[in-house]
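Our example pasted here:


***
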Amino acid sequence: MESPICTGDDADFRLIETFGYVPGRGVARLDLHLARMARSAEAFGIAFDAVAASRLVAGLGGAAPLRCRMTLAADGALDLTTSPMPPAAPVWRFDIAEARLEAEDPFLRHKTTRRGLYDQVRRELASGLQEMVFLNTRGELSEGTITNIAVTTAQGDRLTPPLASGCLPGICRQSLLEAGALREAVLTMDDLRQAREIHLMNALRGQMPAQLGR
């Protein structure tokens, strides 16, 4: 059994799941969210009560869609907070971040509060942009600050970077891979420039048409 990933002295460290609640429909792909949190909890040596997490989600209600954020602390404490669902842009415009990711960083495989670089890049988003996308130190496409990325090639193949390129196993990404609607492939800037279509995706928004640049 592998040793747990060390979080150092970070008392505020949390695992995170972000998802949308829609009245009458509930939370889409909840089983995938809970399974990912369970995997991450095991990787960090944190106790996770999936039944208690399900009860928290079952308590959601209201007449308007909600953005939901579930966290799991190092002591196993669960919390669920909600806010109004933010408005959606019809097309997400993005650029390439200057910073490069280390694809071997184990934290990239887990959704946690250890995301200082991502938060900084989002705070510095230029006007007219909704997202910044990272390359890794090998020049491969990785992920956005809050999204995974997929390209449609001229031949019609829909491709997304593999986890080995340094990206989060996003829930929307996972569901599309399992359905056969995406496949993994190492992607570069050339693939991005030559793409017939680009989509950014996350559990909150699903797939969003995207364009490089403003």
Summary: The longest strand covers residues 92-101.
